[in-house]
Amino acid sequence: MSSTTPEAEQARARLSTRYGNANPEEADVIVALGGDGLMLQTLHRFMHAHIPIYGMHRGTVGFLMNEYREEELPERLANAKTNMIHPLRMKAVHQDGTQGKALAINEVSLFRLSHQAAKLRIAVDGEVRLEELVSDGVLVSTPAGSTAYNLSAHGSILPINASLLTLTPISPFRPRRWRGAILPNTARVLIDVLEYDKRPVSAVADHNEFRNVARVEIAEERAIGLQLLFDPGHELGDRILAEQFRY
């Protein structure tokens, strides 16, 4: 599979000619050609298919991808190491009481929808931990997503195999000194939107957006395991560790 860029489509054509191709539903492995955006789309598309996915970089950002090479692809697939990741499950309750549900591989984010800052109350496992966060928003990230938007919001980078989630504020105004929290992956996070009629908020699970929400529940979905394949020495865990030492 490939993204729609000429570079990725040409690579798919060359690899298909050289190695053949199959319907994704019949495949033992899916080779995704593009950038991290294409990888996220592929993971979402085959969320319940239990098919390992091996990405090769033919896009802009390639943190989740392997180096692109056309030689010895079957051997690379046979020797690839598996990283198992689990998505987040989000339930968003709208102001009118209707609900929306979605899965997120990287993060679930809440954003203000107006010129006024959002007011949020945050509870973890049924206990209120922050009575009022005034900010542009907040996000909950998986280890796989901790080097994405979470990192740009100054959140902690998590090792890929860590049984953790990170809770990170987005441009916090009050409390000014709060920089977020690291939570066990068993935690259930409940975020209530205070004054939601005056300060509207949207909830986004990767690319799925729900506007004008009043409450958002977030928890890791352990029943779903996504298999990402990486070349030896190029594994996701190693690169996430290296990312922590960049300056």
Provide a compact summary of the structure.
The protein is α+β, with helices and mostly antiparallel strands and 247 residues long.
The tally of beta strands, per DSSP, is 15
Return the domain count. 2
Looking at the structure, the CATH topology of the largest domain is Tumour Suppressor Smad4
Fraction of residues in β-strands: 35-45%
Mean pLDDT: 93
What overall form do the CA principal axes indicate? elongated
Give a written overview of the molecule.
This protein has 247 residues and is of the alpha+beta class. It folds into two domains: 6-86 and 225-243, Rossmann fold (3-Layer(aba) Sandwich), CATH 3.40.50.10330; 88-220, Tumour Suppressor Smad4. The chain has five helices and 15 strands. Strands 4, 5, 6, 7, 8, 9, 10, 11, 12, 13 and 14 form an eleven-stranded antiparallel sheet that branches. Helix 2 links the parallel strand 1 (30-34) and strand 2. The longest helix has 14 residues, at 6-19. The radius of gyration is 19 Å and the shape is elongated. The mean pLDDT is 93.
Question: How would the blueprint of this fold be written?
Answer:
Blueprint: H1 6-19, E1 30-34, H2 36-45, E2 53-57, H3 73-79, E3 81-85, E4 88-94, E5 99-104, E6 107-112, E7 118-124, E8 127-141, H4 149-152, E9 164-174, E10 181-184, E11 188-194, E12 201-205, E13 208-210, E14 213-220, E15 226-230, H5 236-243
Parallel strand pairs: 1-2, 2-15
Antiparallel strand pairs: 3-15, 4-5, 4-14, 6-8, 6-12, 7-8, 7-11, 8-9, 9-10, 11-14, 12-13
